[in-house]
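Input sequence (172 aa), recorded before submission:
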Amino acid sequence: MKIIICTFLLMSSIFSFGQVKVETMPKPQSKEKLVVSFKLKNFNYAIYSQVSKGGMDNFDFGYNVGETGETYIIYNVTKNGKTKEGYFPKLIRNDSKKISREGSYIITDNALIITTRYFDYHFPPKMGISTYKPDKFRKLIAVSQKEEDIDPDTLSHDYQKRIIPTGPPTND
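Predicted structure, token format:
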């Protein structure tokens, strides 16, 4: 009788320790916040905003090392969910806390117009203006893009300015 009880206890302890308890992990809270939802040609779109405080999530949106800021994300919204269409910067600061990129958008009756301004210490400041319209498959397509120079004298000290290197000293 002792052998049967010992065998039973041994087998039950082996099976109870061998079982793996499966727990579902809670879904991580999204860092994205809805900014605006809109319609273009009867297709639904939404623009979300996501704050990046450094780390690996920066590289998803083309940030350079040391940059932090906020990015707009454009989604195509259907009854089955949302699909990422693209992204552009809202306000991105470099490691010296100067603005290196900023963007804005305008929604018209049939187009989304995105303006992005770039500031770098290597190149003069530029502004890119892109107009997007949906095709018959709901995909936003760039129909026009243009780039303009920005006068650096009109920028405040909050923006990254171009550093013009000086040549070596002359012995005159």
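Checked by second reader. Residues 41 and 98 are 39 Å apart (CA to CA).
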